[in-house]
Amino acid sequence: MPTLLLDRQKCLRNIEKMVLRAAGQQMVLRPHCKTHQSAEIGNWFMDFGIHSITVSSFRMAGYFASAGWNDILVAFPFHPGEVKLLESISEICHLSILVDSPAALPFLNHLSGQVGLYIDIDTGYGRTGVRSEDTELIEQIITKTGTNRHLEFRGFYCHAGHSYRAASRKELDTIFLKSIGDLEQLKSQFKTLSPKLVFGDTPNCSIQEEFGEIDEITPGNFVFYDLIQHALGSCGMEDIAVAMECPVAGRYPSDERIVIHGGAIHFSKDALMNEGRPVFGRLVHRSQEGWAEAEDEVFISSVSQEHGALEKCGELVRKVNIGEPLLFLPAHSCLTVNLMRRYQTLDGKQISTLNG
Predict the structure, then answer these.
(1) Domain span holding position 262
(2) Number of domains composing the chain
(3) Has residue 228 been placed in a domain?
(4) How do residues 212-271 score in pLDDT, each as one tens digit?
(5) 2 found inside a domain
């Protein structure tokens, strides 16, 4: 069976680097837990003095609140179907939510506890959020929030997710500078409310040096990194802290092709494009420290539900045996973790996740 391996030491180094990066800019690191989804790994952050986190759902918020986290931001726009879960979680921790429409606010009129509110700002990603230039709508949300004694307006949140589509460092810088500039303009316009500015995407949080007036950063993928982050320049290959171990299911020397037990339900359908071809995983070799780059570049180039195919494998197809485990760095670690549900550390320890 495919196994998700975790290099604890690499993971801890990644955490420490981001902690120091935030501290150097006098910012709070509020890491996003959607990548690791694990209470045990969450404890590793606590060991570095982290006291607040970000999550992607109220279910995840409940999981981490039960694990002892007391300051949680749900970075997904609130909708009325979540109100009961919101209420129950807000009774056991300091909870903050995102809103991007005044229409969501009436469903929060009957809260029993205090809940923080950030306005989700769209600086160009185009997924969710109020467009940063739509200050009239932003003011409507703030005004309506002020009529509910159980809601506390805390500031503006931005996830610049379009950074993941950047084709160059120059494009990343452009996305970053616009996002920071838009947030700072909102902070100035609504300065009487002393709003916090919360910003987060792993590529920019990993490479930028000046964060202006940002108060908190919320990257998540940096805990493990992956091939997509490496392509963006966020990390080195040596920083990727998870790898998929998949047994060889078939070998076809005449085609120089290997098929592994490891497909879309293990790696996901997310791929990195390399010279016009999709890459779902990259072969690495076992080493004393865990794994190291292979001499030849061999990729998982296609996936079905259970299987992955390695094309143009050269001599590798004649060296491996059926059933032999091969190691691959994933294209997108967040989705791989969500699908695999648990980790195995290099010393054989099992670590569960929210879904495990």
Answers:
(1) 237-352
(2) 2
(3) no
(4) 999 999 999 999 999 999 999 999 999 999 999 999 999 999 999 999 999 999 999 999
(5) no
Give the 3-state secondary structure of the chain: CCEEEECHHHHHHHHHHHHHHHHHCCCEECCECCCCCCHHHHHHHHCCCCCCEEECCHHHHHHHHHCCCCEEEEEEECCHHHHHHHHHHHCCCEEEEEECCHHHHHHHCCCCCCEEEEEEEECCCCCCCEECCCHHHHHHHHHHHCCCCCEEEEEEEECCHHHHHCCCHHHHHHHHHHHHHHHHHHHHHCHHHCCEEEECCHHHHHHCCCCCCCCEECCCHHHCCCHHHHHHCCCCHHHCCEEEEEEEEEEEHHHCEEEEECCHHHHCCCCEEECCEEECEEEEEEECCEEEECCCCCEEEEECCCEEEECCCCCHHHHCCCCCEEEEEECCHHHHHHHHCEEEECCCCEEECCCC
In a domain, 311, yes or no: yes
Q: Which residues of the chain have pLDDT under 50?
A: none
Domain stop point among 166, 200, 223: 223
- pLDDT score, position 156: 98
pLDDT number for residue 76? 95
Please give the pLDDT value at position 335. Answer: 96
